[in-house]
Design brief:
The chain is mainly beta. Helix content is 9%, strand content 21%. The two termini are 37 Å apart. This is Protocatechuate 3,4-dioxygenase beta subunit. It holds the Pfam family Dioxygenase_C. InterPro entries: Intradiol_dOase_C, Intradiol_dOase_core, TAT_signal.
C-alpha cells in the first residue's frame, strides 16, 4: 500500500492535490465524506486512496459495493452474495462512464421511439405497454441509485431513467425479427428523494460478442425524455458472472452459457477499459426466487456527455440472427 502524501502548506492553509483541506487541523484521511468523494471522482474511474483507515468507513457508508467477476480468471475485487458465492466488488464513487446506447435504444435516435408512447413510465417492464406480449425468464429487479456529482454526490431527485435490455434469447424488442411491434423490457422511472429508481424485469440473456448488460439513459426530468439529445448520461450495467452462470443453466436461455464462456469483462468492447469497475451492481437472490441488482450511478452535469446511439444493427443474439455489437 502506498503512503498518502503529506498536505502542502500554503498561505491559504494546508492543501492536498491543490485543494484546501476542509478540516485544517486534521489529517487527509479524516477530512470527511465530501472531501473523500471529491478526491475519488474522475471521468472514467476511481483514484485509489491507499490506507484510508477511518476514511474508508465513511466512503463505504456513502457508496454501496458492486459485484461481478471476469470469466478469464484474472484478479478482480471480490464480495459475497446472499447465496455465499464470490461475485466481485467495485466501489461506486465516481462518475458513471459514458457508453454507447447501442444499435437498439428505441429512443428515437435511429428510428423506433418508445419514449413518446403513453405508458412508458412504469416500474414493471416484463410486458409490452399494451399488454399484448410478456417476456419470459428468471425474474430480475434492478435498481439505480443516482447521485448528483456536481453537488457533492447528493441524491439526484427527479431525474428520469430510461432502461432497456435484451430478452432471454438475446433479442431486442422493437428491432428483432418478429418483435418490431413489441415494447417489453423497456421503461422509465423517476428518481425519488433518495435518487432511486427500480424496475421489475427478467434476467437478460448473453449474445455473442458482449458481456451480459442493461442499457440506461438518465434525463434531467420526465418531460425531457421525448428527445434523446436531452440525456445527461448514457451507460450500461454489467451483470455479475456468478448470477449469469446460474441463470443460463435454465433452458429458456439456450445459447447464453456458451456465449458467456467465450467472453469476459476485460475483453468486452464496452466494459473492457476497466472491467466495469463502476458498472457492476451488488446482487442478491437465486434462480428460484429471482435476483435483485443495485447500482450506484454518479452523474456529473458539469461534464459533456460523450456517448450516443449507434446506427441500427442486426436482429439480436442467440436465435435472433446477427448479434448486436453494443
Amino acid at each position: 500500500m502506498s503512503r498518502i502524501p503529506e498536505p502542502v502548506q500554503t498561505p491559504e492553509g494546508p492543501t492536498y492535490e491543490g485543494r484546501l483541506l476542509d478540516r485544517a487541523d486534521e489529517e487527509v484521511v479524516d477530512q470527511g465524506a465530501a472531501f473523500d468523494i471529491r478526491t475519488l471522482v474522475t471521468r472514467r474511474g476511481v483514484l485509489g486512496l491507499a490506507g484510508l483507515g477511518v476514511g474508508a468507513v465513511v466512503l463505504a457508508a456513502c457508496a454501496p459495493a458492486a459485484t461481478g467477476t471476469s470469466s478469464t480468471g484474472s484478479a478482480e475485487p471480490t464480495a459475497t452474495t446472499d447465496t455465499g458465492s464470490s461475485s466481485g466488488t467495485a466501489t461506486a464513487a465516481g462518475e458513471i462512464p459514458d457508453e454507447t446506447a447501442g444499435p437498439y435504444p428505441g429512443d428515437g435516435s435511429n428510428g423506433p421511439d418508445v419514449l413518446e408512447e403513453s405508458g412508458i413510465v412504469r416500474q414493471d417492464i416484463t410486458t409490452s405497454i399494451d399488454g399484448s406480449a410478456t417476456a419470459d425468464g428468471i425474474p430480475l429487479t434492478f435498481e439505480f441509485e443516482v447521485l448528483d456529482m456536481a453537488n457533492g454526490g447528493v441524491p439526484f431527485e427527479g431525474v428520469a431513467v430510461y432502461a432497456w435490455h435484451c430478452t432471454a434469447q438475446g433479442e431486442y424488442s422493437m428491432y428483432s425479427s418478429g418483435l418490431e411491434d413489441v415494447t417489453y423490457l423497456r421503461g422509465v422511472q423517476v428518481a425519488d428523494a433518495e435518487g432511486k429508481v427500480s424496475f421489475s424485469s427478467v434476467f437478460p440473456g448473453c449474445y455473442s460478442g458482449r458481456w451480459p448488460h442493461i442499457h440506461f439513459e438518465v434525463y434531467p426530468d420526465v418531460d425531457s425524455i421525448t428527445d434523446s439529445a436531452n440525456a445527461i448520461a448514457t451507460s450500461q450495467m454489467a451483470l455479475p458472472e456468478d448470477a449469469c452462470s446460474a441463470v443460463y443453466a435454465d433452458s429458456r436461455y439456450d445459447g447464453s452459457s456458451q456465449n458467456l464462456s467465450q467472453t469476459s469483462l476485460a475483453g468486452d468492447n464496452v466494459f473492457g477499459d476497466d472491467s466495469a469497475a463502476l458498472q457492476l451492481p451488488t446482487i442478491t437472490g437465486d434462480v428460484t426466487g429471482g435476483y435483485t441488482a443495485t447500482l450506484v450511478v454518479g452523474v456529473d452535469t458539469t461534464t459533456t456527455p460523450s456517448a450516443g446511439s449507434a446506427p441500427s444493427g442486426g436482429d439480436g443474439g442467440p436465435g435472433g440472427g446477427q448479434a448486436p455489437s453494443n
